[in-house]
UniProtKB/TrEMBL annotation, chain A:
Protein name (database record): ABC transporter substrate-binding protein
Residues of the Solute-binding protein family domain: 79-450
GO CC annotation terms, alphabetical: ATP-binding cassette (ABC) transporter complex; outer membrane-bounded periplasmic space
Keywords: Signal, Transport
Protein source organism: Roseibium limicola
Similarity section: Belongs to the bacterial solute-binding protein 5 family.
Protein localization: Periplasm
Automatic annotation (TrEMBL), chain B:
A GO cellular component entry from the record: plasma membrane
Lineage of origin: Bacteria, Pseudomonadati, Pseudomonadota, Alphaproteobacteria, Hyphomicrobiales
SUPFAM superfamilies the record matches: MetI-like (SSF161098)
Name this protein carries in UniProt: ABC transporter permease
Main location: membrane
Gene Ontology biological-process annotations: transmembrane transport
Pfam family name, one: BPD_transp_1_N
Transmembrane stretches, start-end: 12-30, 99-122, 134-155, 167-188, 231-253, 273-296
Keywords: Cell membrane, Membrane, Transmembrane, Transmembrane helix, Transport
Family recorded in the similarity comment: Belongs to the binding-protein-dependent transport system permease family.
Organism: Roseibium limicola
Topology term for the membrane: Multi-pass membrane protein
Amino acid sequence: MKKAFLAGAAALLTATALTSVVTPALADDIKQGGSMIVTYKDDVSTLDPAIGYDWQNWSMIKSLFDGLMDYEPGTTNLMKDLAEDYTISDDGTVFTFKLREGVKFHNGREMTAEDVKYSLDRVTNPKTQSPGAGFFGSIKGFDEVAAGEAEGLSGVTVVDPYTVKIELSRPDATFLHVMAINFSSIVPKETVEEFGADFGKHPVGTGAFSLEDWTLGQHLIFKRNEDYWRAGVPKLDQITFEVGQEPIVALLRLQRGEADIPGDGIPPAKFLEVTQDDQYKDLIIEGGQLHTGYVTMNVKMPPFDKVEVRKAVNMAINKDRIIRIINGRAVAANQPLPPSMPGYDNNYEGYPFDPEAAKALLAEAGLPDGFETEIYVYNTDPNPRITQAIQADLAAIGIKAEIKALAQANVIAAGGEPDQAPMIWSGGMAWIADFPDPSNFYGPILGCSGAVKGGWNWSWYCNEELDAMATEADSITDPAKKAEREEMWRKIFISVMDDAAWAPVFHEQRYTMRSERLGGPDAIFVDPVHIPVNYDYVWAKDVQ
Amino acid sequence: MGSYIARRILQSLLILLGISFLTFVLLYLIPADPARQIAGRSATVQTVENIREQLGLNLPFYQQYFRYLTGLVQGDLGRSYLQKTEVGELIVSRLPATLLLMLGAIVSELIIGLSMGLLAALKRNTAVDNGLMVLSFVGVSSPQFVIGILLLYVFAVQLGWFPIGGYGTFMHMVLPSLTLGFLGAGWYSRMMRSSMIDVLRQDFIRTARAKGLKRWQVLFGHAMPNAMLPIIAMIGIDIGLFMSGIVVVESVFGWPGIGQLAWQAIQRVDIPIIMGVTLVSAFAIVLGNFVADLIAPLIDPRIKLR
């Protein structure tokens, strides 16, 4: 039954991914106008695209700004945004973008290739303190800028006002994704310089909405950009973001018609009550996300240096029970990649839940009586409860794991030391992809480059053969060879599983709710990239 | 009097300096690395180092503290790590909401507390008195988040009389003010009761009655003003109680004041905001006590300031 449900959920997820493309004909029929209220618990931190990096401002920034590339609404499929066209050199190291003409910033000035160069120089400049600077490492001249030796990226050249050429120091198949990430948004130099460090409170971009008002601690108002270059977008005239509202209060207000979307999602405490109520059945939307929760086993710390032990842990964990602990808000994982990520292997079955076989593996590794170890965990709910379940599962095969529940920063610090944390439950910290490409699930968390002090490869798994294969895969930039590249990644992640560097546990699902008066394809309310909601395509039923 | 005030100001400054030092030490010791937090998970080691240097986090403790104090003297509370905004600006933008809530709380604690105390004193040793005193006991001892959620559930969610949290109109203000004032109301009703019972026993009350004044005239003209003296002196001290209460009450009701700001900052370990709110609250408490001490002799001439 449980299996059937999970299979169903997975099928549903794939189905939404396939059918969720907004057909232009349908989108054109929808009249513009109306408004909505979105609530959040926390203050919005910043709307500066070079700085903003959280769940709340991610999609807001996408509505205020544009980059050269974006994704089709509700999907992970790349599409051109401010780039009208692009060409990639045969060796995959030179990207030439032709810009759309006549695109205006909210301040009225036309956007040109100079702005693209300025924006990329700014985000990589150490003075900007951008958390996303590292994504641009493949651009020629990045190292000099990062070290403070150069003011601008030597690889980025303005060919003419509507053409910009970007040279890379190595072929990078993920580069178009990098050009779609918020950090690559195009900003106007004069406004950035006018407001300096406060640009994040006075954002000006070319996006579908512009910021009308921001009353600190209370609300933000986004107004439709009348001059937006994409015809018929956005649908709404205005969005009000109200902040400082606890998720439970937000849900009550939605039920009373005072708010339209609880930005923080459905709170766990109300989850069963709301999802089991027929009244709300059609208003609740479920979506996948590019997330995997896993247990790392430090291969540098015995006995986890033995592959049999790591396999035994994989077979000992009862994933279905853990998913029940979080009210079924996840699907079981058998490999590092989440199901909606290109390169996911649908045919791979993973390690079965089999405590007897796990015990046999321990015996094979010379540990028939098990051993004592520690499992680190971030101390906020539900992570300690999940870890308790893992602890019980491990105890059943003779592994006595002591739980170390600590603040997030401390767990991350312990994971970044080669000899401190034998096991870590990744929940609440890792890993959600920054962009929908398998390479983002490898380098920092499974590759040799992440297995360094202060890194995020908490298994300290470093397989040079796989690293070489990853580099090779990422140098395949020809779109025609996309399938070949995906196949390589598939192999890499299945090899990681053969070595059992992780015990993948589940992929979190996202649940949100919308009010009756909002329209739009379900997929945009749980957009995998415009997280949490693709505001540009939501429409109001009361103006149709 | 002049020298008293000068001495008190000096004392207050020393207290604030002490608080700033203690808070700074505590926040310095918590094992969170602000630079890493700002840099995010995708940052290179180089980026983290750059940020640490730019924020002066690589300096020894005493230098960091001195830098903070230098800014403080110039009215600069620093910049929030995560909100990327001047802490002073954040606090100032939220102060009106907090002051309004405190005013509401003072009004509600006085109205509820005084009328409960008065009624209990007049009906003393009856069932009414006992009932009211049990209620005041509940008020003094209940955690504010319980009272807040209870009021919210009954009067906003179930009965729909008030909005479910938020800010803007008088109706938004009622429930949070009652919640914040409930503790003080319980306290004041007890003080009012005993002080009223005391006053009613005094000779001048008997004289007032004897000269033919009506019962309500005696009560409100003679007894109340005397019984309220100790209570008015207490209001200044209430600021301290409120400062701890607003963190809870503002979070429950989504009230955009500095309590909510503090709570969000604590959850995200945004050190400059925690520091700023702590100092502003400490300043308010010190000021509240100071003012309460200054007005005490105006109300009761028997009190002398030395």
